[in-house]
Amino acid sequence: MDIKSFIANMPKAELHLHIEGTLEPEMMMSLAERNGVELPYNSVEEIRAAYEFTSLQDFLDLYYQGMSVLQTAFDFYDLTNAYLTRCFAQNVTHVEIFFDPQGHTSRGLSFETVLDGVTAALDEAERNLGITSKLIMCFLRHLSEEDAFETLEAALPHQDRIIGVGLDSSEKDHPPPKFMRVFKAAREAGFIAVAHAGEEGSAANVADAVDLLEISRIDHGNAILDDLTLTDRISAAQIPLTMCPLSNLRLCVIDDMKQHPIRRALEAGLLATINSDDPAYFGGYMSENYLAVQEALNLTHDEIRQLGRNAYLGSFMEDSQKAAALANFDAFASANSP
Ligand code: HPA
Ligand code: ZN
Fold first, then answer.
1. 3-state SS of 124-181?
2. What pLDDT is stored for residue 47 in this prediction?
């Protein structure tokens, strides 16, 4: 099987996906109309034309503005459902989804409005499409520690649905120490911890996220490769990295896909994975991310296989589910490798 078909048909797991980042311009327009929300755009083309980012902050400004069209549980259901339909078409069999409760509660929505809509779609996709899922809520790092504690409090009755806490938004001025206490409280309450680190920030941010926030997985982690000692340490501990090639390109974390560090990450023994981050904003879902980095770096079948397998290995599936998913993946890979 040629490499492009191998990527398309390979069973895939996505571990870094912001559900609000799957809001396609078409849905943004239709929800704005349905809910009577004013947008500063008159067409889908105008929205797409605005997606020329020079930094993470540049993107975040539009991402928070886009979210404003999401008003009801039904909107969150539609959003999640559209994403999962695309997953099915791309042979994504397992997803671990982020949501940003503070992006919605700050606009007057209840935590439950968001959760009910998202989980209804996740449950339906498991029944109808066989796609399994986990849900992780992120704290917005540009907001206060107190606000994060309030969000943790709101999540406590929903631990049957939310398995973990994450940390996203502006990395540069909001490094990990600010969230040490709330992460400790979240872990003590039984949540798994993950955090965005080393995307625009330095290797030191990644080390702090690991040491101070005690995270089980690193979101992005590109900057790890700048520090040999840290690379060896993360590699030895096999802490998974959820890398996002098209996101990195569109947010100018790299200037060219040929600079993407994913092959170097594999060569260093890191448990690197490929993910889409905010696919509606960055120009591609899972297959497009695999294809972009495969083409730019001329990744081999074996490297693609390793990246695909790492995603199941680095997932938060229960052991028996993980073993079954890995067996399914390995059967595909051995039947279809050159
Ligand atoms: N980085 C930080 N915050 C985010 C991202 C990201 O890639 N996507 C959505 N919120
Ligand atoms: Zn992200």
1. HHHHHHCCEEEEEEEEECCCCHHHHHHHHHHHHHHCCCEEEEEEECCCCCCCHHHHHH
2. 97
**Pick the catalytic residue: 14, 20, 96, 199?**
199
Sheet holding 241-243, edge to edge: 12-18, 92-99, 132-140, 162-168, 192-197, 217-220, 241-243, 272-274
State the CB neighbour count (10 A cutoff) for residue 212. Answer: 18
To which residue do tokens 């625009």 refer? 200
Give the domain ranges of the chain.
3-326
- Tell me the Cα Rg of the chain: 19
CB-neighbour burial class of residue 173 (10 A; exposed 0-12, middle 13-18, buried 19+): exposed
Q: Which atom of ligand 1 is found nearest the CA of 220?
A: 7
3-state secondary structure of 105: helix
Q: Separation of 169 CA from ligand 1 center, angstroms?
A: 5
What's the CA gap between 26 and 36, in Å, rounded? 15
Please say if 199 is a catalytic residue.
yes
Of how many residues is the chain composed? 338
Superfamily of domain 3-326: Metal-dependent hydrolases (3.20.20.140)
**What angle, rounded to 10 degrees, do the helices at 145-155 and 180-188 form?**
10
Which residues line the pocket of ligand 1, CB cutoff 6 A?
A: 18, 21, 56, 63, 168-169, 196, 199, 247, 277-278
**Over the stretch 140-154, which tens digit does the pLDDT of each residue have?**
999 999 999 999 999
The SS3 assignment for 92 reads strand
Please tell me whether the overall predicted TM-score, pTM, comes out greater than 0.90 for this model. yes
